[in-house]
């Protein structure tokens, strides 16, 4: 099942590690300056010089490749098509979301995920249409990083991963676990459809980048230190996700779909 | 021994105090809700209109912002421990530059306005003085954005202390970012002020380039 981890990934990891050793660590403040020490602990970014270097590398890749791809995707595919892609990808995530609902001790949410998967895979034409969401069971996301957090695992220092972006040891471990444990990926791997795994990963990446096109531009436009702003926003956003305190968790489904309907009418 | 009548009177008094307190809190929450609703309506009617110049939009937003946000308090929150290190002229300069950046940030957002509406979904007290107002910004075809307004009573009205967008606090994010800028200039507040002036110059240039 590890066949879909290519050798090139190991090579990238090795060179990033070597690079990290060269770029080194940030200098902690003197122990007698208590406020500075508290600040250092709160920022919790001992690898800042390395992280900043990887962040710049990611920025360059983004400007040259990912952002133009996402812009092209937005321009070429109308909203209806992008919604079908999003619904399809969300449905493929159902087994992972279900597993994490269970592992977090949330039977109600697990049942919701299972019902969504059954409805959308069947009536929603293999997940292309989110029938369950319109029927009042909205999509919610979970991942192993959030589950570890619920179990009390601390996030650890801030990490910027090549291409994948902001993370930390806990969420990186979660990401690796998901990549290896995803039943859809395992099934594709066992039936010699590795192309499907890579296509899914690529499309999911472009879909995610498209969603963040406007907000990331706004943060870059208005921030003095883009790196520090993204670091802070990533952590706060993650905390909200872990607490299940995001808009889909808080607002009853009916009022979201009502808003969508009124939006469509006025268009 | 307490007479029956005194006991009843005492109980009634207690109930009155408790109920009166609750009624006060309710009144404060209703007022906070009305304050945010009015703020959104005013912004829509004055800043988000299409046929005004950029300068006029900046000016209108600045008036609204200064009137309804507690800038000195936000400034202290954002600068954190560096507020005390900063000299009074640096503090004043910081508040002025912070205001300019916010004006340039939000004026553009209102210029790009395309029919979003604000719905207040919940109001709850936050400590002794503050009230949290949960709202949803509804957008055409896109998912709504959850925005929480932290407001504090100021005289007859309220002042906004912080805005949380999808769980991320604006004040906290600025604080973390500005701390980082100060640190990279050797702990000097002056380094932050320089970076802010540069950013304002850049944003103004962007604004006039877009107007051309």
Written overview of the protein:
The complex is a heterodimer of chains A (267) and B (212). Helices cover 71% and strands 2% of the residues of chain A. In chain A, a hairpin with a 3-residue loop joins strand 1 and strand 2 (165-167). Chain A starts with 6 loop residues before the first helix and ends with a helix. With 267 residues, chain A is an all-alpha fold. With 212 residues, chain B is an alpha+beta fold. Chain B is built from seven helices and five strands; from the N terminus they run H-H-H-H-H-E-E-E-E-E-H-H. Chain B has a five-stranded antiparallel sheet. The longest helix of chain B is centred in the N-terminal third of the chain and has 43 residues, at 4-46. Chain B starts with a helix and ends with a helix. The interface between A and B is large, with 37 and 39 residues.
The average pLDDT score of chain B comes to: 88
Strand order of the largest sheet of chain A: 1-2
* Content-based structural category of chain B: alpha+beta
The overall strand count of chain A is 2
Count of alpha and pi helical runs of chain B: 7
- What is the terminal-to-terminal distance of chain B? 86 Å
What are the secondary-structure elements of chain A, in order, as H or E?
Answer: HHHHHHHHEEHHHHHHH
Shape of chain B: globular
Number of beta strands of chain B? 5
Largest sheet of chain B: 5 strands, antiparallel
The radius of gyration of chain A is 20 Å
Q: How many DSSP H or I helices of chain A?
A: 15
Helix content range of chain A: over 70%
Strand count, sense and closure of the main sheet of chain A? Answer: 2 strands, antiparallel
Q: What is the strand and helix layout of this fold?
A:
The complex is a heterodimer of chains A (267) and B (212).
Chain A (H helix, E strand, L loop, with lengths): L6 H17 L10 H10 L4 H29 L2 H14 L1 H10 L3 H16 L8 H4 L9 H7 L8 E3 L3 E3 L1 H13 L1 H8 L3 H18 L1 H10 L3 H17 L4 H4 L2 H13 L2
Antiparallel strand pairs in A: 1-2
Chain B lengths: L3 H43 L7 H15 L2 H9 L2 H4 L2 H24 L5 E10 L3 E9 L6 E10 L2 E9 L2 E2 H15 L4 H23 L1
Antiparallel strand pairs in B: 1-2, 2-3, 3-4, 4-5
Helix pairs in contact in B: 1-2, 2-5, 3-6, 5-7, 6-7
